[in-house]
Design brief:
Layout: E1 8-13, H1 20-34, E2 36-42, E3 57-62, H2 64-73, E4 81-85, H3 97-102, H4 104-108, E5 115-126, E6 132-138, E7 141-145, E8 153-159, E9 162-169, E10 171-176, H5 183-186, E11 198-204, E12 214-217, E13 222-228, E14 239-242, E15 246-249, E16 255-268, H6 275-282
Parallel strand pairs: 1-2, 1-3, 3-4
Antiparallel strand pairs: 5-6, 5-16, 7-10, 7-14, 8-9, 8-13, 10-11, 11-12, 13-16, 14-15
Amino acid sequence: MMADTGRSVLLVVNRDKPEAEPVTHRLVDAITAHGTLLGQIDAGNGSLPEIAEDADLIVVLGGDGTLLGEGRRFAGLDVPLLGVNLGRLGFLAEFDVGEVEQQAAVLFGSGPLVRRDMPMLCAEMIEPDGTARMVGIAMNEAVITAGPPYRVIELSISIDGSIGPVVRGDGLILSTALGSTAYTVSAGGPIVHPGTDAFVITPIAAHSLAFRPIVIPASCTVELDLVRLNDDGRSGGTTLVLDGQNHERIYAGQRVRLRRHNKSITLIDNPNGSYWRTLIDKLHWAKPPAISGDRQA
């Protein structure tokens, strides 16, 4: 009977991080002690190596932004991603290298993994003649932002074919539940537990006191008709932005269609963590105002 060799692991490294090299060595030691290291590749938009298809687990070393990019990159492989944080927040990349080393026997051996399947957004551009083309996918959000020369834009919203309101302002965000703690919450949207099967529509600086963010089922298809947009020639204009990383200019006559992608992404949760503790400790959810020392009036 052959001994259990553990999981086959592909290591993806964001080498722009100053600490990447020494932490990579520690991860390699942890992986090879309990599993099989298929190889290392750089984070980015490069083509996937053939060995990626043989992986049981993909370890992504970087920050939340790195994990977002690699989530889109590996979306079609149906292989879980484990994020190791070298960034500032570490909301999605839940592990640090010390925690990985402590849990290495489970993570890279044959122990149970805490998996979380997250829906992704699919963005399509509808041309004036009605033809649709795929723009990309997003884990966190799709944003239509005003762009240069930064005048107010107007977006007509339809949900599952039903005509909705027109938003006038600096743009609009459609986020997943996972992305509700990113740009959406900064724009005044609600925090939605990532286990909720929902999307959030949040206006950006709407010229209306009545246009509030709304939570809709993730099964909905949202279409956005650009009634008025910006076009500043070569310097830019109204743009569709996916996860803050991929950009696509929008021109007069085009519409944007946003819906659930047919692929989800699986993230590995830290069993020693807690979503609620993360909200409190990292995003300071419900933290009261800081009060200076006891001063006499």
